[in-house]
Amino acid sequence: MAQSDPTDHALAAIASILDQPESRREPEKTAAAEQRPVAPPPIPVAPAPIEAHGYARHGPGPMASIRFKWTVRLENGDYYVDETIGENSAPIVFGPMSREAAIQMVDDRESDARRRFDQLKSEMAGSGAAANLARQDSGEA
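^ thats the sequence. predicted structure below, dont judge the formating
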């Protein structure tokens, strides 16, 4: 008796399943699927409002002594933004303003500082690459 290839048996089983008419096949249901109730979709939850007093952002940079920091503070019902450079500098105070305006100012200042920092970093990398190309062209190593 010749041994048959296991692949032939697998292909024959697949073919017999595919040859069955759709009307004879019923979807299989497990007992767990029949007993489990369908959960309703989650209700979207609005994010909690940002607590303005103490809201702070730091500017980018490698040295804490020259890094900007913007902090919102509440004083007598008005919001102020303190801008400092480094850890021990006297703050430049902006305000009074609304809660939303203070948060927006901090976010805008941080975003602008990050954009300028990335631009400067890119320019420095570009000029460094250009200097390296110039050295290579002149034969320096």
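The beta strands are 56-58, 68-75, 78-85, 92-97.
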